[in-house]
Amino acid sequence: MEENNEKAEIYSQRVRAGKRTYFFDVKSTRSNDFYVTITESKRKFKDDEFSYEKHKIFLYKEDFVKFMEALQGTIDHVKSELLTEEALASLENPTVSSELPVAVAEAEVSFDEELKWE
């Protein structure tokens, strides 16, 4: 009998960022537990063909709080210590291209919002 190594996917969210795409996926284990994978996929051009370079992080539920705190602390440090007021303002209010639908512009998340697991 062949064993299926694919884990059941419960939820997936994609974030496009230039040449990179990030995937946030919730998957279940055989014992009906769950974990999160964060995948960075970067499009590469080689030998007249496109390929994708992928890097993946597995995040287990017992580490969610520590991970969120570290990520929020890192973002807060960049915002308060490394970015100029002008750079921070441009990130918080990006110029929306006229080609993007209004719904996309309205769906942008402010950097003032804290990370939250719901």
From TrEMBL:
Organism: Pontibacter aquaedesilientis
InterPro entries reported in the protein's UniProt record: PUR-bd_fam (IPR006628)
Xref: Pfam families: DUF3276
Keyword terms of this UniProt record: DNA-binding
Domain of life: Bacteria
Protein family membership: Belongs to the PUR DNA-binding protein family.
Entry annotated with the keyword DNA-binding: yes
Name of the molecule in the record: DUF3276 family protein
